[in-house]
Amino acid sequence: VFFAYLYQKYISSKIEQLSEVFFGIEEHAEIKKKIKITILLKFFIFIFRIIKIIIYLIKKINYQNSYNISK
Questions:
Q1: Dist. CA 28–CA 35, nearest whole Å
Q2: What's the half-sphere exposure (Cβ side, CA atoms, 13 Å) at 42?
Q3: For residues 37 and 33, which has the higher predicted lDDT (pLDDT)?
Q4: Cα separation of 11 and 54, whole Å?
Q5: Which residues of 33-64 are buried (b: 16+ CB within 10 A; e: fewer)?
Q6: Which of 6, 13, 40, 71 holds its CA 20 to 30 A away from the CA of 32?
Q7: pTM of the full predicted structure?
């Protein structure tokens, strides 16, 4: 009975703490994965906007050149 008490008091609580730490790491890994995905998504949106601006500027320059040539 005494050993069962010691097991319940010390060893089972240590196992519980270890499992909480283990499962906590899994949760943090999922959070980090979601953060990486959102960072990648924001990066691709940023690149897309830059490409869109560059295309707009190229069209504007081409339009101005064609206007100057026709004068």
A1: 10
A2: 6
A3: 37
A4: 64
A5: eeeeeeeeeeeeeeeeeeeeeeeeeeeeeeee
A6: 13
A7: 0.49
